[in-house]
Amino acid sequence: MWGLRLLQKHGVEYNVLATVNRRNADYPLEVYRFLRDEAKTDWVQFIPIVERINEDGGTLYQEGNTVSDLSVKPEQFGTFLTRIFDEWARNDVGKVFVQTFEAAARRWLGMPSGMCVFEETCGLGLALEHNGDLYSCDHFVEPACRLGNILEKEIAELAFSEKQQKFGRDKRDSLPRECRECDVFFACRGECPKNRFLTTRDGEQGLNYLCEGWKTFFRHIDHPLKVLAWLMQRGYPAPELMRVLAMEEAFARAGRNDPCPCGSGLKFKRCHGRKETGPKGKNRSREKHPDTPGPGPAVRS
Predict the structure, then answer these.
(1) What is the per-residue pLDDT for 59?
(2) Is the pLDDT of residue 283 over 70?
(3) Least buried of 43, 84, 160, 185, by fewest C-beta within 10 Å?
(4) Considering the entire predicted model, what is its pTM?
């Protein structure tokens, strides 16, 4: 905290990298609010701790399918992200930037995520050690992924070698069918290869350890991010999402005889709560504007 305050005092740009482990993952709002309100940071990365235990009991290499006691559980991680997302989407859009949320929003906008773990291929985050050894990724600083030494070969030659190119392609080519057919595959792309050590229901290797958590998170944020994408594609600022979500929740809570949340002065049943007969004789609500993913007045007024 002293170091953080020093950076803030002198106007140095920074971001906070917070690890999510089995101990703190049950306290998502406490973690987020501390970073936002006490640390007063506006850029946060949440990194899930998945520490694999090798046959010899060590944790240095990405081997084995058992994790340490400090590793976050998949369902824990999914709940952690969803709880923080709900807080952020209703209060902090445009004020606090969470890397995972920013990357997800880009996906819903049809853009590259900006995070290697959510891209189709990888291999751009190489790791250079103090002795000149170059490795394929900072998650794979181990013998099998050593590309060479920059004292012996040019760094560009090592970085663009066939071995490194294959490392990047393997992220895409080694995915099991269950991943490729998943409804949130467009968002996660199988996440990081270092976490792909489970077996699918069909017996294929390569299922991501955090899969269930990522499914929970991406499915939970689908509607808010569709709203955000709709708004931004039409020139509205991202913080408008907070007003749309607040309006939606107000509509959901409104009783038939309550004043309509849109501010018309009419009762809800006479305004956005009114039912009309649709094209096939079915009742339809006026609660949504036909061209928007949320209540009309929130984005039109």
Answers:
(1) 67
(2) no
(3) 160
(4) 0.86
- Both structure tokens of 144: 């099998």
Residues 6+ apart with CB under 8 A from 276: 283, 284, 286
Burial (0-12, 13-18, 19+ Cβ within 10 Å), 97? middle
Convert 62-89 to b/e letters by CB count within 10 Å (16 or more is b).
Answer: beeeebeeebbbbebbbbbbbbbbbbbb
Strands (DSSP E) found in the chain: 16-20, 43-48, 52-53, 66-67, 97-98, 127-128, 133-135, 146-149, 196-199, 205-208, 275-277, 283-285
Burial category of 189 from C-beta neighbours within 10 Å (exposed 0-12, middle 13-18, buried 19 and up):
buried
The amino acid present at 298, given as its one-letter code, is A
Q: Determine which helix (DSSP H) or strand (DSSP E) holds 295, and give its type and residue range.
A: none
Q: Would you call 29 helix, strand, or coil by DSSP?
A: helix
Closest CA to 75 of 281, 216, 195, 233: 216
Contact between 32 and 87 (Cβ < 8 Å): yes
Query: Among 26, 56, 138, 258, which one carries the catalytic annotation?
Result: 138
Q: Fill in the amino acid letter for 239.
A: P
Strand partners, 283: 277
Q: How many CB atoms lie within 10 A of CB 37?
A: 9
Q: What is the DSSP letter of 54?
A: P
* Cα gap 186→226, rounded to integer Å: 14
Rounded to the nearest 10°, the torsion over CA 36, 38, 40, 43 is -40
- Give tens-digit pLDDT for 55-88: 776 767 788 889 999 999 999 999 999 999 999 9
Cα(231)–Cα(224) distance, rounded to whole angstroms? 11
